[in-house]
Design brief:
7 helices; two-stranded antiparallel ribbon; single chain; 8 strands; Rossmann fold; 204 residues; alpha/beta; globular; 4-stranded mixed sheet
Amino acid sequence: MRYSPTVYSAFAPPPKLQLSTWMEEHIRLPAGDAAVPGKIRLYGYQRGIADAIGDPLLERVTVIKSARIGYTTLLVGALANYVHNDPSSLLCLLPVKDDARNFVVSQVKPVFAESPVVRAKLDAPKAHAHDRDTMLFRRFTGGSLRVVSAEAQRAACTRRASATSPAPPQAKLSRNSKPIPRGGGIRQFESYMPSQAIWSDRRG
């Protein structure tokens, strides 16, 4: 039996794009929360940071930055990219629980809701009736997104998950705190004061 090219194209994987290119094609910023709502347009320095975060060959990306440069938006875009193109267990770390809630309410939910490709993933029917979402935990096809505080590090260390941390430079996150175990097919990101250190480790 022979199928038309349209049938085969339905099973084709998404094209491999640099993170900055994917964000500009698919991420939408909500009105009221962004100076320029609609399709995101990145500055040159933002493109460099985004492409470094999305580069599977880079194990660690360190960003020493000022405030208000759109860094958190880049991390939300990276999360959206993983949800859509590389679904897995995602773990997002912030300094304290209030930061985790604020991050979800003010950053993640508005951008995800405004971006059709991500919204479609999150709105897809759940496989089981007990797969319920909460403010800090969302399931989607092929994975999940959990947002936790660095205070709950024992809980974070026990979860096999991809992680990102948009902790601000002034966050009181100790360099002596126990890092998340690496390896085992886990993409990991972590932030330290005063720089933002993001590392990625994905195997298998």
